[in-house]
Amino acid sequence: MRFQGPVLLCLLTLSSAAIAADKPATVSLSKLYQSYENAGNSALSMAEYDTRVRFSAVVLEQTTSMKGTPILKATAPGEEAEYARLLGEDEAQNKKLGALKDGAKFTATCTVGFTSGTHYLSLRDCTLD
Predict the structure, then answer these.
(1) How far apart are CA 65 and CA 121, in angstroms?
(2) What are phi and psi of 117, to 5 degrees?
(3) In this structure, what are the phi and psi dihedrals at residue 111, rounded to the nearest 5 degrees?
């Protein structure tokens, strides 16, 4: 089967759009947290809810869940307030998150998870870049 010029152009445009749709938006953690505050501290009301976002941050503190899974408390570079808590996408990412020391700078891609009424934003399925 041989495709003609307009058909090929259309296919290329559609494939480019699909690739762009899969690429996470790069945001600053402080702007992402501001969006959460603007939404009344409800992630459900954020445009970013349940989408993948890429950002840079600094480790404030390491803690663990009741199941022993690492939870990373993070802030934006140059800030001191806790903006987010990160959970890894899988065991390998949990180990990477757990290895980060307090004060370490990192870049991650996460899904904005359900959060309501807290002073931090929940970020899940995180992968370190």
Answers:
(1) 16
(2) 75, 10
(3) -100, 130
Return the residue matching tokens 């802030």. Answer: 75
Tokens of 84: 């987010």
Distance CA 12, CA 58 (A): 39
How far is residue 84's CA from residue 33's CA, in Å, rounded to a whole number? Answer: 8
Are 58 and 104 within 8 A, CB to CB?
A: yes
Taking the model in full, what pTM does it have?
0.82
Q: From CA 100, how far away is CA 82, in angstroms rounded?
A: 16
Residue-wise pLDDT tens digits, 60-106: 999 999 999 999 999 999 999 999 999 999 999 999 999 999 999 99
- Residue 72 and residue 107 in contact, taking contact as beta carbons nearer than 8 Å: no
